[in-house]
Design goal:
By secondary structure, this protein is of the alpha/beta class. Helices cover 36% and strands 19% of the residues. The radius of gyration is 17 Å and the shape is globular.
Length: 205
């Protein structure tokens, strides 16, 4: 049901893959509006960390907090992705709310015809997502939080298994849950700022 500009009773689930590393690189890049000055919060999470143990993960969040964090084997193809979705959102009925929408980016493994068919057959409503819009997804901020926590850990991470264990601990922590809830509450403002920026990157979140 829509009241004014708000969708009452609708739940949006954001998903994404990310590389998690145990060390930080000395090379850092920024994403910012063309012509504006850069500040440290603009650092892109995907380029802040490198040169250590690495794992690839897939995560899912909702307005209530973290939902899934799964380790994946490198770059996935469409069949791998379908197996992941079957294991998580289908088997565990994460999107059982009839007003739930599933967000994913436009990676080739996500946009493949067989994936579209799989989601349709399982009655999963997919939220349309414009290409190259990582600054609009709150889960990008969650990855940045996890990576900052990993980098600042005093405990030495000596294996990929331990790296994943520590990543899950951070992801499902109460602190991360509060961050996710705050990010969801900021979404209307974030969308409005994107409109005002005329599609340029939103850099403050």
């Amino acid at each position: 049901m829509k009241v004014g500009n708000k969708m009452i009773g609708t739940m949006f689930f954001f998903s994404d893959e990310s590389k998690l590393c145990s060390k930080k690189s000395g090379v850092e890049y920024v994403r910012k509006v063309r012509g504006s000055q850069w500040t440290k919060p603009m650092l892109t999470e995907e380029n802040q960390y490198h040169n250590g143990l690495e794992i690839m993960v897939w995560g899912l969040i909702s307005s209530e907090g973290p939902v899934f964090l799964e380790k994946v084997d490198g770059r996935q193809n469409a069949d791998d992705y379908i197996q992941l979705l079957q294991k998580t959102i289908i088997t565990k009925r994460a999107l059982k709310n009839k007003n739930a929408y599933f967000q994913q980016d436009n990676a080739p493994s996500h946009s493949a015809k067989k994936v579209e068919k799989f989601l349709s057959e399982n009655k999963i409503k997919v939220l349309y997502w414009p290409p190259q819009s990582p600054d609009m997804s709150p889960i990008e901020n969650v990855w940045a939080h996890i990576k900052n926590q990993l980098y600042n850990m005093k405990e030495n991470i000596t294996s990929k298994e331990n790296l994943f264990k520590q990543s899950k601990k951070i992801f499902f922590s109460s602190a991360c849950t509060e961050i996710i809830k705050k990010l969801y509450n900021q979404m209307p403002q974030r969308v409005q700022e994107l409109i005002e920026c005329k599609g340029e990157n939103v850099i403050k979140y």
